[in-house]
């Protein structure tokens, strides 16, 4: 369970052994058979984390490279696979443990705004490189 607001950097394809709430686990223990082992988000989560942390929102924002080989990681990997890396996943602690709804709301709004800004600037660089 998250104790900070956690930005996930990547999703993993293999290693799923636990049953979900419907008692299902893929027989292959992977999300996408033949898919890459790990897919990184094209969003620079380190930059997003630094920018949001600098805002002084009284919410701790951290980075993770492992969403846990359960439903979160499975969902994130599948989303990254389908979108070619254009996806994000944020783990949020339960309300009141330790943050209020207002604190989490402000932090999530700032995270989304920074992700969009980082993505916009990275796409500008990609497009610029292709034009030459």
Automatic annotation (TrEMBL):
It comes from the Eukaryota. GO terms for biological process: proteolysis. Belongs to the peptidase C15 family. PANTHER family: PROTEASE FAMILY C15 PYROGLUTAMYL-PEPTIDASE I-RELATED, PYROGLUTAMYL-PEPTIDASE 1. It catalyses: Release of an N-terminal pyroglutamyl group from a polypeptide, the second amino acid generally not being Pro. Its EC number is 3.4.19.3. The keyword Protease applies. It comes from Buteo japonicus. The active site is at 72. It is an enzyme of class 3 (hydrolase). Keywords: Hydrolase, Protease, Thiol protease. GO terms for molecular function: pyroglutamyl-peptidase activity. SUPFAM superfamilies: Pyrrolidone carboxyl peptidase (pyroglutamate aminopeptidase). This is Pyroglutamyl-peptidase I. InterPro entries: Peptidase_C15-like, Peptidase_C15-like_sf, PGPEP1_Cys_AS.
